[in-house]
Amino acid sequence: MLEVSLTHRFEGIALDIGFQAPAGLTVLFGRSGSGKTTIVNAVAGLLRPDAGRIVVDDRVLLDSARGIHLPPHRRQLGYIFQEGRLFPHLTVRQNLKFGAWFSARTPPRAEFDRVVGMLGIGPLLDRRPGALSGGEKQRVAIGRALLSAPRLILADEPLAALDAPRKAEILPYFERLRDEAAVPILYVSHSASEVARLATTVVALETGQVIRQGPAAEVLGDPSVLPAGAREAGAVLSARIAAQHEDGLTELDAGGHPLFLPRIAGDTGTPVRLRIAAHDVILSRERPVGLSSLNILPGTVAELRAGEGPGAMVALDTPAGRVLARITRRSASALELAPGQSCHAIVKSVAVAPDDIGGR
């Protein structure tokens, strides 16, 4: 468990936050300037806040009231930056072992081999960073952080410097890190897709304040929480692969209802979670017929929030989970939408992007 309570003033922003991050991958989610990197740097010891308290499990890293401020090298943390920040004169093997020099113990050979295998970097061990792609550098950076025997891993927008193909390459490794490493992760992002795919817990930030925290499905499914903007809104659904069809579609079982998506790799029963963007959802009071869309989810309107412009955000509770729909206020009025009303969510199969689908 990570406990953070901080106050700090910059020009134009006053940070005043408090949250708890349980085991798993906790995402600090918000727009640029909301305070995400400041929080991570304070946890790392790279920034001394005006006041605060930071505790990892039972170890106090910072307590301004008691005059405690451990330096970075004594905090036993692994830090993954936006760029790999590998030592160019060292081989991959030497970069991986560098973090262990500052840890309380040297990782045994079996642990080194496990991390190398998990990240698929065995063939890279004798290369130097200059001969690596951006995605390979980030995998090595992840391995270096893991092999420092950290109590906590910090990741400050580790995919921001990568192009789309490299991001797609790295995301599965962060999923494995979340599920297999048994080390809590504090991850910074302003990408709704990354948050939906990776987060077990979300701490949503706005101008230096925590506006909501909790499980990813609950926070992203709240129409009042839009730290990345209305265009990035979307809810997270959990499902399982029900069948692979010969026409290239994968059928998911989402709360007892079928969802059809372009082919997803995996066997029957494999759990997945997916983000459905709010702007890709159409609403209908009655179950529609004669449509090309294969995915129709019945539900009940849970909440409706009108925006400052012509838009409105509708939260629909379905058997598959919470779905958000971004429609116009005119459409909401024409449909006479209100909490408690029955409605149907319609989603095109091809509207769900591959980056919005991941393991659970």
TrEMBL record:
List the SUPFAM superfamilies hit by this protein, alphabetically: MOP-like, P-loop containing nucleoside triphosphate hydrolases
> Is Membrane found in the keyword set?
yes
Native organism is Lutimaribacter pacificus
Residue ranges of domain Mop in the record: 290-356
In Pfam terms, one family for this protein is ABC_tran
* Lineage per the UniProt record: Bacteria, Pseudomonadati, Pseudomonadota, Alphaproteobacteria, Rhodobacterales
Gene Ontology cellular component? Answer: membrane
Q: Which residues form the ABC transporter domain?
A: 1-232
Fetch the InterPro entries from UniProt: AAA+_ATPase (IPR003593), ABC_transporter-like_ATP-bd (IPR003439), ABC_transporter-like_CS (IPR017871), Mo/tungstate-bd_C_term_dom (IPR008995), ModC_ABC_ATP-bd (IPR011868), Molybdenum_import_ModC (IPR050334), Mop_domain (IPR004606), P-loop_NTPase (IPR027417)
Q: What is this protein called?
A: Molybdate transport system ATP-binding protein
Under Gene Ontology molecular function, one entry of this record is:
molybdate ion transmembrane transporter activity
- Tell me which UniProt keywords the record has, alphabetically: ATP-binding, Cell inner membrane, Cell membrane, Membrane, Molybdenum, Nucleotide-binding, Translocase, Transport
Q: Does the keyword Transcription apply?
A: no
Q: Which residues form a coiled coil?
A: none
